[in-house]
Amino acid sequence: MDVLRTSQNGQAESLTAGIMAQALRAKPDLVLGLATGRTMKRVYAHLVRLHQQDGLDFSRCRTFNLDEYIGLPSGHPGSYRRYMEEHLFRHINLQAEHAHVPDGMTSDVMEECQRYEALIQEAGGIDLQLLGLGVTGHIGFNEPGSPLDSRTHEVQLTELTRHENAGPFGGNASAVPAKAITLGLGTIMEARRCLLLVTGAAKAAILARVLEGPVTPMTPGSVLQRHPDCKVVVDAAAARDLGMGSQDRPGYI
Ligand code: GLP
Q: What is the pLDDT of residues 193-207, one digit of tens each?
């Protein structure tokens, strides 16, 4: 893994957006895997600016979001479809039919998971997968215990994750759906490139486990240690618990 440690406030997000923009310029029909959460809001704000001011062109790009809550209408403030519309989709020239988010309102979750996997395959697989990190160590919504080779599937969210994600639900963790659809760890690992963005002191301990601990389903993000092309962008606060020697590794900025 190539760890890029940033020092200035906001630099991690602009670097992440820059890597995504570079990939899109190099391959205009890029298949982009997208993530949600607070961490990504500034990344999407940069991408919107790059589109509006520099003409970054999404017209041939296809996107696949990592996950979605089950049973939440797409207009709900907590829905990831709504998050994506608000922070990215409505501001750029991505074609509506190219912007994929799992359908959490489906009557048949298993069928929706298979449909989503098939759509990704039909698109030729994910070129660049953007990832955030949950405090439980999850990527997408793959909570501790998720098999490292899992495909798109239904998950039961931990209480900690529901608590962490309660913001758009009026701060009420019990209002956060208990279930979600997520790309599996196996699906994520098939992306040709992964780009993990982690910011803030609250993620420092789990980031150290993800990057430097054993590869185990109990720390789902640790599977990225086995990915052949994974960049990790971190800010100073999130990097706090990384091993002393890590600053000397190539790839730090
Ligand atoms: C959610 C998403 C993850 C995201 C995580 C971190 O649980 N399913 O994909 O990485 O939150 O979110 P935040 O950036 O808000 O800490």
A: 999 999 999 999 999
Q: How many domains does the chain have?
A: 1
Condensed to tens digits (0 to 9), the pLDDT of residues 6-23 reads 999 999 999 999 999 999
Task: Tell which phi-psi region holds residue 100, choosing left (phi > 0), alpha (psi between -120 and 50) or beta.
Answer: beta
Question: How do residues 25-44 score in pLDDT, each as one tens digit?
Answer: 999 999 999 999 999 999 99
Ligand 1: residue of 16, 36, 161 to mutate (most ligand atoms within 8 A of CB) is 36
- The parent domain of residue 179 ranges over 2-252
Ligand 1 mutation pick, 164, 179, 207, 233, max ligand atoms within 8 A of CB: 164
Measured at the CA of 146, the angle between CA 221 and CA 197, to 5 degrees, comes to: 20
Instruction: Name the CA radius of gyration of the chain, rounded.
Output: 17
CATH code where residue 87 lies: 3.40.50.1360
Which atom of ligand 1 is found nearest the CA of 133?
Answer: 10
